[in-house]
Amino acid sequence: MCGAARLILLKHSHMIDCPDVRKSVIRNHYNLTTLFYRLLWGRHIHHGLWNDSESPARAQLQLTEALASAAGIQPNATVLDVGCGMGGSSIHLAKTLNCNVTGITLSRLQRHWAGWSSFRRGTSGNTSFRCVDAELAEFEEAAFDVVWSIECTEHLFDKPAFFQKVAGWLRPGGRVAICAWLAGDDVTDGPAAQQVYDVCEGFFCPSLGSSADYRTWMEQAGLEFDDYQDWTDRVTQTWEICRRRVEQTGMRHIARLLGVNTTMFVDRFNTILEAYRSGAMRYGCLIARRRS
Ligand SMILES: C[S@@+](CC[C@H](N)C(=O)[O-])C[C@H]1O[C@@H](n2cnc3c(N)ncnc32)[C@H](O)[C@@H]1O
Question: What is the pTM of this model?
Fold first, then answer.
């Protein structure tokens, strides 16, 4: 349901909250639809980043590379990939920078998929994948040079608590590198807030924060905020392509077979596209560091 009455706005931030989302539904979504993502989009379950008219596969890699560059990831770095999907980022960082990557995902199927994919692409010596909830995960203090997360923090229920954990997992001087779907800076009510709510509901996000919220959570965790880059205009065509592919391939029928949640998800591709176009949503990368 997406009635205005269900829209909850938190007064202390720009965060838009969608209280009906359940963790079990997020897990089921990725267990059910990972094959769907692979066929519809590619190895990475994230937006593409376009400079020009590159292919979607190239644009997906460009986003990964742009985040690695913004975070200044060094060769041989020890990386935690939070919400690793099919292992796209983990394998890329292992292959191109010889990073040692631990990937975690909520989905058991994705954990096996990522492990198998890493084996096939020759990086299994540098990667390991676990099925664990990032909000419950425990790692040793200062275990990682980089905590990396592309399009997973949207799914977390307590985002400030997550950044507290991240701060402990980073070695002094280490960096957290995030790509995230964001609520627009001034979105507090009205049709724009409703659009963000509809995206949260359709894509199983308990909330979407603004770039200012992320900065606050990082700073409250004691991290030093480094950089925010707004990539909205360079990622938006992801949804034009996905919408077209769904229409051309009859994927909506497969979605229907997978149930109401997957049908709603596909039906909301247009909503997210409109939300980016209207400014209700932004997309960006955020970098912060643990003080040395
Ligand atoms: C949009 S996909 C992004 C996947 C991957 N980062 C990529 O870019 O290809 C979101 C990922 O977050 C994971 N995820 C969602 N909630 C999570 C949680 N609480 N703990 C760990 N992973 C989670 C999902 O299992 C999925 O792999």
Answer: 0.95
Ligand 1 centroid–CA 139 distance in Å is 18
Give tens-digit pLDDT for 186-221: 898 899 999 999 999 999 999 999 999 999 999 999
Is 67 touching ligand 1 by the criterion CB < 6 Å?
no
Q: Residue 82 Cα, ligand 1 centroid: separation in angstroms?
A: 7
Question: And the tokens for 158?
Answer: 């307590």
Ligand 1 center to residue 21 CA distance, Å?
15
In the predicted model, what is the mean pLDDT of residues 212-233?
Answer: 98
Confidence tier at 51 by pLDDT (50, 70, 90): very high
**Pocket lining: 110 vs ligand 1, CB cutoff 6 Å:** yes
CA of 115 to the centre of ligand 1 (A): 15
State in Å: Cα 110 to ligand 1 middle: 9
Q: Residues 87-103: pLDDT tens digits?
A: 999 999 999 999 999 99
Closest protein CA for atom 7 of ligand 1: 45
What atom in ligand 1 is closest to the CA of residue 46?
A: 8
Q: What tens digit of pLDDT does each residue of 127-164 get? A: 999 999 999 999 999 999 999 999 999 999 999 999 99
Closest C-alpha to 71, from 152, 177, 226: 177
Cβ–ligand 1 distance for 89 under 6 Å, the answer yes
Please state the CATH superfamily assignment of the domain spanning residues 4-290 in this structure: Vaccinia Virus protein VP39 (3.40.50.150)
